[in-house]
Amino acid sequence: MASFGYSLSSEEFSPCDLIAFAREAESTGFSFSLISDHFHPWTNGQSNSPFVWSVIGGLSQVTSRLVVGTGVTCPTMRINPALVAQASATAAAMMKGRFFLGVGTGEYLNEHIAGLRWPPPWERLEMLEEAVHVIRLLWRGGWRSHQGKYFVVQQARLFTLPDETPRIMMAASKPGAAELAGRCADGLISCEPDGELVKKFEESGGRHKPRYGQVTVCFDSTKEKAAETVRQCWPNAGIAGDLMTDLPTPAHFDQAIKLVRPETITENMALGPEVDDHLRAINEFIDAGFDRVYIHQVGPQQREFFRFYGDKVLPRLNGESVERSA
Known about the structure:
This protein is 44% helix and 16% strand. The chain is α/β, with parallel strands linked by helices. Helix 6 packs parallel to helix 7 (195-206). The longest helix has 19 residues, at 121-139.
């Protein structure tokens, strides 16, 4: 049976709001949350992007059951993998078995700030694989050094380590990343209900490993209000393909969005107050092979969303089996 989580959208909300929402997610009945790790929001209108590790420290103090993972951290350019190893070890020590590290190859939007060139996809995958090795090496404790193709670590030791080593989940939207996730990560993260992606992950060593899928929805009193909220607060939903990884600034995303038809932004998204619409969106991920589905509620109606899911959606999802809707 699948489990269900809540997406903490760092691009939309302040750090204090994110902490409050995590506490409410736990009390609503969500079992886990993934928090996005960006330097910039996708668009200038989203207007937030706090430092994720500071927020996780706050989350550790206001929750007691909620499992939290980064969704996702790029440990290759903006932040050296040795620092990611230290930050995540500290987070895991504070969360006491309730933290995992989600990693991915990143977006130019966030990684260009270090002044490094933006590598091609194959090279970003190589960098990510080596970074995961560095992180796990340092998590073993003791004095460690590493001389690799992309990273050098000299006489480094993490003195603060958790009792339980965190797991590493890896984001994938294409077959090459899914293959790497299956081979060297402890689980898969994806924003697309793509059964072929899950199959590639499993064939590459991911069988029986967790598979996290993010579904984006917008609860509001009507579908029309929800659609307008998405177009205002999450218009980047209308952008696909390499633009998502290769555009450099929120201003460039704003320009690209102007070329997108408004209906494309909300296409195939669960909108409004109908429970069955939300169940259908979630079931797409279940049917594709994801066993952990987390919901990204777009816009300011977060507390209304928690009431709606707590009263109407989660009770139907947490039955003997996931209920199918006609």
